[in-house]
């Protein structure tokens, strides 16, 4: 009976996954969908999820509220789509720009640097993720592609301990979480009118993170 329950759950999950992939394919070339995500991200970031209404988003888009249901069913769906879109984009960016060879501590520094630059360049969307993801149900949060980044940081700490570039006394999991927390917090204090360019901020944060674990 336990095995049957798990199998049924797996089939339901697979069905949902196929349905969502089909929806994503349908929406991918839709300019109105891209505009909806952009407006929703700005509204969630400025007003917060709780104070945002679908009617308000529809008004900002100049469309009827009922037209939104062509794209999403609930406000939570829209929040999920905004967050998932920026996480997927971040993973693509990091995969393209972070080296896969060389001393682990140098690759960790490069990963943090690119991560911070991405956060700043996509400040609205990353603010929504970092500030509003808890508004999603546990089931929806579990679908977000976030665990791979933490595992990547943790793996670099382990590699660094093996190649001698990272101290042996650093707990890989704790070290990864501390580094991620330090990098992510930039969304709370960064201001475009500040004296430092995004790249300068990213360099400083990345160097600091590297020094915190370097052998």
Q: Give the helix level as a range of percent.
A: over 70%
Whole-number total of structural domains: 1
Residues in β-strands, percent: under 5%
Named CATH architecture: Orthogonal Bundle
Question: Largest sheet, if any?
Answer: none
Instruction: Classify the secondary structure makeup into a structural class.
Output: mainly alpha
CATH class: Mainly Alpha
Unreliable segments of 5+ consecutive residues:
1-19
Q: CATH superfamily, please?
A: Tetracycline Repressor, domain 2
Got a strand count?
0
CATH topology: Tetracycline Repressor, domain 2
Count of individual helical segments: 12
Compute the gyration radius: what is it? 20 Å
Distance between the termini: 52 Å
Q: How is this fold's topology laid out?
A:
Layout: H1 2-27, H2 31-47, H3 54-61, H4 65-68, H5 75-97, H6 104-121, H7 123-132, H8 138-143, H9 147-163, H10 172-184, H11 186-189, H12 198-213
Helix pairs in contact: 2-5, 2-7, 5-6, 5-7, 6-7, 6-9, 6-10, 6-12, 9-10, 10-12
């Amino acid at each position: 009976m336990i095995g049957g329950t798990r199998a049924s759950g797996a089939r339901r999950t697979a069905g949902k996954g196929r349905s969502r992939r089909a929806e994503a394919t349908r929406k991918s070339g839709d300019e109105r969908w891209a505009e909806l995500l952009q407006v929703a991200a700005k509204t969630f970031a400025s007003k917060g999820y709780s104070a945002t209404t679908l009617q308000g988003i529809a008004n900002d888009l100049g469309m009827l509220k009922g037209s939104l249901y062509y794209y999403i069913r609930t406000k939570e769906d829209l929040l999920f789509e905004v967050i998932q879109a920026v996480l997927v984009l971040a993973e693509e960016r990091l995969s393209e720009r972070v080296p896969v060879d060389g001393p682990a501590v140098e690759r960790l520094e490069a990963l943090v640097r690119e991560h911070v630059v991405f956060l700043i360049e996509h400040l609205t969307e990353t603010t929504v993720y970092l500030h509003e993801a808890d508004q999603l149900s546990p089931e929806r949060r579990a679908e977000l592609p976030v665990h791979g980044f933490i595992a990547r940081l943790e793996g670099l700490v382990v590699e660094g301990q093996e190649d001698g570039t990272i101290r042996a006394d650093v707990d890989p999991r704790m070290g990864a979480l501390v580094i991620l927390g330090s990098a992510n917090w930039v969304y709370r204090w960064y201001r475009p009118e500040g004296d430092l360019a995004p790249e300068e901020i990213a360099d400083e944060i990345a160097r600091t993170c590297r020094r915190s674990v370097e052998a």
